[in-house]
Amino acid sequence: MTEHQKEQLSALLDGHFDGDEAMHELVENASQRERWFRYQLTGAVIRGEATSGQPFDISAAVAAQIAAEPKHAVVPKSSWQALQQWLQRGWFRPAANVAVAAGVAIVTIVGIQSYQPVTDGIVAPETASAGAVNTGFETRPLGGVINPVSFNMTNSPVVDEQDVDQERRLLQSFFFDHQQQLQLSEQEQAEAVNNPELLEQEID
Amino acid sequence: MHGYRFLLACAVVASSLICNTVHAAVPQDELGATELRAGEQRALQEGERWFNLMQQALTEYNFSASLVHVQGQRIEMFRWLHGHTSDNEQLELLHSLNGPEIHIIRRGQTVSYFHSMSSPYSIRANTMFGPIPTAFFRDFSNIADAYNAVPMGGARIMDRTTVHVRLIPKDQDRYGYSLWLDRESGMLLRMLTVSQEGEPLEQIQLTALEITAELNSELEQVIELNLPPIVDDIHRSVNVRHDWQTNYLPRGFELIRGNHHRLPITGIAADYFLYSDGLTRVSVYVSEDPEAAANLRYSGLESLYSHSFADYSVTVVGRLPMATLQRIAMSVRR
Fold this sequence. Notes:
Number of domains of chain A: 1
Oligomer: heterodimer
Largest sheet of chain B: 11 strands, antiparallel
Number of helices of chain A: 8
Order of helices and strands of chain B: HHEEEEEEEEEEEHEEEEEEEHE
Shape of chain A: globular
Helix content of chain B: 10-25%
Number of helices of chain B: 4
CATH architecture of the largest domain in chain B: Clam
Radius of gyration of chain B: 22 Å
Strand content of chain A: under 5%
Structural class of chain B: alpha+beta
CATH topology of the largest domain in chain B: outer membrane lipoprotein receptor (LolB), chain A
Helix content of chain A: 40-55%
Order of helices and strands of chain A: HHHHHHHH
Structural class of chain A: mainly alpha
Radius of gyration of chain A: 20 Å
CATH class of the largest domain in chain B: Mainly Beta
Distance between the termini of chain B: 34 Å
Largest interface: A-B, 93 and 89 residues
Number of strands of chain A: 0
Largest sheet of chain A: none
């Protein structure tokens, strides 16, 4: 791994990277994956969050998910770029890109977890109206509701690491979906107010 | 639990005393029940008035603010701008200053979410989905079934004189809130979410606030910004598969969304119900997929409780105490 790549990885962990390709490159590289894992662990240890026996490395699973993710490019790149340009035009930015440790906990759980939209097999994607995005968007709970090391699973006598992984996956699945549904319900509410007839239909 | 009642009683007594200063001759121990009730009523009306002043401040002022959000060990910092265009369209921006870069931008009814590590998207909504509960941007009547607003006196926050208003749940099965509102502007300066035991679960504190007559010039640039498209809510059109009976719901919770969809990551198919008391919301998932069959517990500000029945499993997620989530989950019947 070159110094440049290390810098990139550090920036990525800090959330100062927006390129999907850079992300792919970084995650595909196995030695980088290992480093990624160590950075995370270091951060967790610094914050006193790490406990022994916790399988920390979810990057393999994440890589698989990213590989499986269709290049759906549903969102025009321009809006992010526009924002970036706008930001560079005199937006106040914090002085330094501080430490790797800072954002890692959030990154681990809510940041890296790219997942592909699941089609229900009920609604054909084509039915999505033109110009609209599929619901496969990712919600980013502010504050990262899921802390990887604070599972409270006292009622589930888990011994197997695979079971722990499976439970973590389940938790993430429910928490992500909950966040997503909350946001969509805001939209449903807003549209119901705009169009009361729609609301009537919903209730039927 | 007792803390709440005690404080409510104090507020009532205090406000009764204030309101009764004109009848100064009446000794405190002779205050009749009717007078106490009248005092209580006045306190609640006053609390409601303050809540609505806050709602107006949050939606009508042009302001630039910084805030910190503390949740457990985590501290986040945000810059927060709000204003009105000359066409009276609301503009708002929330920008995270710690950790990964997050921008939430609202232009009228379009709220866009930009995260440095995922694709941006927009939601059609009247409020941002950020650290401040969306209920605070709406009228008190939306939460009046489940909460009382009780003014508790004042405190000095950000070198300003504030009114402390508590949102006390009418039933002790959910969290309460403390708000500190600027006495002059009604603006929210500090907020606390508290457990039933009175333990703080999260805190928001403004660290800077500037209220201006004119729209912030930085915010003006949002008018020109090319926002990502609105997500298409495909879940919404798919009805639930079974008529599940949720036999227990806390007071004031109503169904606001129901559908059948697959979850991200696992692909589990579930019937989905979202209930709201106007302030907090709880998701109920009922799935027949064996993969969902687990008895999970997760405690945090957002908690999760799941239970497997013989041929289906129920998962309940939301900002409610574990005991409440459990009671809801256990009440779901085919």
